[in-house]
Write a structure and sequence with these properties.
Elements (H helix, E strand, L loop, with lengths): L10 H34 L5 H6 L5 H11 L5 H13 L13 H36 L4 H15 L2 H15 L14 H34 L3 H8 L4 H12 L1 H17 L2 H6 L5 H10 L3 H29 L6
Length: 328
């Protein structure tokens, strides 16, 4: 049986996919270029003097002048932008004004916490969401569907920081099964993974609730298509129709949400990282803002924007693999 996304496996399809990838890679490069220009403009071309902002209002004029020279603020902005981009292309994001260390090294160290945490939370969200979404779609309009959607609504409504504190109270304080906070480093892999379990669960709950609702809605819409009725008429069971035909065709909105969720989990876990005292990327950006370290903010935001654009590119490739019509 052929569903609506089946296409011949010939050279034309392969050529379409190659053109699609080239097109998306071009768009990725242009997006990164525009994003870098916007980030540079926001940080360095806004009204006011970045050096005075970083040093504070009580700084001496000669100190401000020395910092301006160190940051290259005495040069025209096109030269500063070209120098900054040249450094970015070679992996040099500058030096932190506060910590006197390379920003690239700081970001790499923090990514060793934020990236595994985001991946753990995303995998956990998928593991929770897919069974709930499939169950609700298979029983749409019945009691099971109503109960499942009610549970997901509660998951969306609960603040993740409150849920994080509840997890600490139950599993760290009362049961003493998992650490309440801190990160021992990847020199102790098991201890590091245990330290990330509670933060990952706290981050995954609302994301799983959102994903389950999106999956259920997409499946319900797909189950009303003509080719689904044809599959049922040919004698396929409800489970076969749901998993072999409807699920694949319902994945495009789910992939969109997954891409957005990964970007959020990577950059938006500031509150959770503070609750669990994790030295992650979000916490680093928060500290850099409070310490007026614009060099760190500039470099970290660029890395996060690049990560979001890359995830979007991967999601687009997923679209093309699921629905070959999009390759054109």
């Amino acid at each position: 049986m052929h569903d609506r996304f089946t296409v011949p496996a010939d050279g034309t399809s392969l050529l379409d996919m190659r053109r699609y990838v080239i097109h998306r890679l071009t768009a990725l490069g242009l997006s990164l270029a525009v994003a870098s220009l916007v980030i540079f403009a926001v940080v360095e071309l806004v009204p006011g003097d970045p050096a005075s902002y970083m040093l504070g209002t009580g700084a001496q004029p000669d100190t401000v002048a020395a910092l301006r020279e160190q940051l290259g603020l005495d040069r025209p902005w096109p030269m500063r932008y070209a120098g900054w981009i040249g450094g970015v292309l070679t992996g040099d994001l500058g030096y932190s004004f506060t910590y006197k260390t390379p920003v690239a090294g700081m970001i790499l160290d923090r990514m060793q916490v934020s990236l595994p945490l985001a991946l753990m939370a995303l995998v956990l969200a998928v593991v929770i969401a897919f069974p709930i979404g499939l169950y609700a779609a298979a029983r749409r309009g019945r009691v099971g569907d109503t109960l499942a959607m009610g549970v997901t609504q509660i998951g969306i409504s609960l603040p993740n920081f409150w849920f994080a504190m509840l997890l600490v109270l139950v599993f760290a304080v009362n049961l003493q099964l998992l650490p309440a906070g801190g990160f021992p480093g990847w020199g102790h892999p098991l201890a590091a993974l245990r330290a990330l379990i509670l933060p990952a669960v706290a981050l995954a709950l609302p994301q799983a609730a959102i994903l389950a609702r999106v999956l259920r809605s997409s499946l319900v819409e797909t189950l009303g298509q003509d080719y689904i009725r044809t599959a049922r008429a040919k004698g396929l069971s409800a489970a076969q129709v749901l998993t072999r035909h409807a699920l694949r065709n319902a994945l495009i909105p789910v992939l969109t949400i997954l891409g957005m969720q990964f970007s959020f989990l990577l950059a938006g876990a500031i509150i959770i990282e503070n609750v669990f005292y994790l030295p992650g990327l979000g916490r680093m950006i928060f500290q850099a803002i409070t310490q007026r370290d614009l060099i760190v903010v500039q470099g970290a935001v660029l890395v996060l924007v690049a990560a979001v654009i890359l995830v979007t590119f991967l999601v687009d490739l997923g679209y093309a693999l699921i629905d070959p019509r999009l390759r054109k």
